[in-house]
Amino acid sequence: MKIGNHLSRLDESKLYEELSRSNLPATKRWYAGMAALLLVVLAAVAVFVYMMFVGLGVTGLNRPVMWGVMIILFVFWVGLSHSGTLISAILRITRATWRAPVLRGAEAMTALALMVGGLYPLMHLGRNWRFYYILPYPSERQLWPNFRSPLLWDAVAITTYLSGSLLFLYFGMIPDLAMARDRATGWRRKLYSFLAAGFRGTHAEWRRYHVASTLFAVIIIPVAVSVHSIVSWDFAMAMVPMWHSTIFAPYFVAGAIYSGIAGVVAVMVVLRKAFRLEKVLTPEHFDNLGKLLLTFTLVWGYFYFSDYLTAWYSRFPEDWEVIRSYSGHYLPLFSLLVACNFLIPFPLLCLKRVRRSIPAMFAIALVVNVGMFTERVQIVVPSLARRNDPSIWGTYFPTWVEISFIVGSIAMFALIYALFSKLFPVVAISDVKEQLFHTTDRTIGGANLSTVVSGEGKEGGRET
Amino acid sequence: MTAVEPRVVVGMFSDVEKAAQAAQALLSLPLPEENVTTISSVPLPDGAVVRDRRPIRFPWIVVAFWLVGALGGLALTLVTYQAYPMITAGKPINTVPPAIIVSFEGGMFAALFATLILGFRSIGLRPFRSGKRMIFDPRIHEGKIALCARVDPGDQERLAIEAMRAAGGDAVRAEEGEL
Question: What are the boundaries of each domain within chain B?
Answer without folding.
Answer: 7-54+132-175, 58-127
